[in-house]
Structure formats: structure tokens, C-alpha cells
Amino acid sequence: MSFAAREVVTRADEQMDYLIAYDRVVNIMMALGEAGGVEVIKTEFGEEDRQTVRFSESLSPELMDQASELKLLLGLNPDLIEFHVTDRITGRAGDEILIQTRSLLSILSFLGMGMDVPTADAEENRILVTPDFLQTVIESRGPMRIRTQEERPEDSFAAVKFRNQWFYIDETDHLSKRTISAVQLLFELLAPAGGGVAPLLSLPTG
What torsion do the CA atoms of 53, 57, 63, 68 make, to the nearest 10 degrees? Predict the structure, then answer.
């Protein structure tokens, strides 16, 4: 394997490690949220409002351990229960938590690496194919897997037909199902608020 190829594999592997840690963070946040162990509130800060993540002080021993693990994963002060949300990477105070997101286009581009490319499309150079050594990493540790076949899948969570091929997420693939549901939620959050403009009707009079 060439040096450039090894660099790509290393970067991909590091990114997957981040995804695994992120997945653990999400699982803990969901568990704490369902138990009322963590909440995001708005607090006044001078003339502005800012968001604050607050952990409950009355957690079960199991949830307390998960909250401690979450603080460790996020690099937070384990002795505090309240953290102000910031987007600053450097110069953060001990009571601040960094929250940043990728663009939706960047998220979709990365998730697209988990798609099985039809052989004909790859041979006709219709799509950029992920290298085999990188595909192996994504197949084993990626957040979403999109499978393809010519026949309509009988047991799929989501499916769409394009150029005589069916692209689908298997009903038993719970990780991919959760990932696509999260992407759908992001689309809804980014959609413009309010209804559309009503059509104008011209009615004859007289």
C-alpha cells in the first residue's frame, strides 16, 4: 500500500473512532434525557440569552456513572453540573461545552460512502467509487449502510428506485435506521418555517 493510501486509511480510521465516540455520547444523552437527567435551558447572560446544559443532581448510580462517562468523553469538568454552550474551539472556560455541527451537505457526502455502488455504474464511471481499503473500514464501522439490488427489496425500512436499481436500508439494520431518521430530522429543522404563499384567484365580477 502506498504512503498516500495509508494516510487515507489512517484518517478514515480516526474519523470512525470519532463516530464511535459520538455514537456513545448520543446513547448516553438519550438515556439521560429519557430519565430527566439532563436538560438544555436558556439562561440570561447580560443582554443576551444563551443555552445551558444542566445535569440533574438526583441520578441513579447507573445514570451517574453514565453522566461521568459523558463528561469524560466531552472533556468537561467532572465536578460541575452546569455548562454553557459555546462554539469557541480555543479559550473555553471550565464551565463551557463546545457544540459544533457539520454542514448538512458534508454529512450527506460522508454517509454516501456507505452505499453499495452498482457494478454497471462503477464500470461506466457514473459515480466516484470509494476505494476498497476504505470501504472495508466503512462497512465494519460506518453509521449507515445503503444496499442495492435490481429487484424491489421485500423487507426494507426505506427504499427508492433509480435507474433500474433499488437503493434501500434493511429493516434489521438499526444503526442505519437511526442515522437516516436523524438526517430527516435535520432536514426538518433546516426547512423554512411558515406555510407557502397561497395561490391568487381572479374571479369575474359584474
Answer: 60
